[in-house]
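Table S2 (continued). Query chain:
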Amino acid sequence: MKRLYLVLFTLIATIAINSCSSGKKAYEQGNYYQAVVKAVNRLRSNPGHKKSKETLKHSYPLAVENAEKDMANILDSDAPFKYRTVLRSYEQINAMYEEIRRSPGALKVVPNPKNYYPEVAKHKDLAAEESYAAGIVALERDTREDAKQAVYLFRDVQSFVPGYKDALTKIEEAMFKATLKVVVDQIPVPTAYTLSANFFQNKVEEHLYTQFRSTEFVRFYTPTEAEHENLPYIDQYLRIQFDDFVVGETHLVTNIETLTKDSVVVGSVTLENGSKVDAYNTVKAKLTVNHKEVISNGLLSMRVFDGRTSAVLTHQKFNGEFIWFSEWGSFNGDERALTDEQIKICNSSEVPPPPPQDLFVEFTRPIYSQLVTSINSFYARY
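Corresponding output:
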């Protein structure tokens, strides 16, 4: 049903294009359906347009005649899916019927446009029957690709005649055979980082189980789900693990330097005439700056194994790093020797780093982005 409505919508939407054309050029080129569409559309905005009336008068009978000839030829043939093809011709004639009825100017030219609505229902049944039969054949071939084709065919059946035979059950059966079943192994990490690793694992699983959109024919299972559903077979195993990671590697660097600044007003002097002027000199300060970095990084490995042969289908690695830092300082001497930024550092105090669990989460953020992109790309082919 949806497919037929889409055809009808597409046919009607065509009318919105070339709104200023009378359709004469399409008629001269032998495209009678387009000639009708353009002429009707022009008459809707200008009911008295002579050229469009003339075009419609000559093109409409030819458009109907061509469609009917096509239907007769197809019905006499052994062409696959001939009834759905015939339905498209019916819908073309019905689309012209609807457009002419909505155009007073066109109705004066074609007062009794033709429609095939009664025949549509009959041929929907026939189209459903031929798609159902083809779906059964595809399903019996017992391959994933054929099962995918069967899904599409049984969905067509439902679109032609909702509830036709056991089409809904067949869709479920074909979908199960067509779906690649992938078990995702847990990510092992030391106990100290279990909470953070669970957070990472949950994000990965959320993507796989609720956000994965690359294809409808892949389903990811946890090992528990696979066991609970008693899957007859597993197509692939997706194994994700950290090959290496470091959390909280601390580096402290202390830099001491002597600062000087010339031409700084340090006071004033009185001249012989009694006036006062600024006195300039060089000021100095000893600056100590502490820079602490806490580095966390890791390397994640993703492997996909064939569920039957255990062959490695892909092996990729992703790295991530997070550097937290704190900077503070002090000085001895004249503050005027310091820049505003150096003063700001001296006014800062040492800040403790985030807990290891948080550092773990931070360095895995870029790893997560790389991982889901790779998973989406790999499974899009299925």
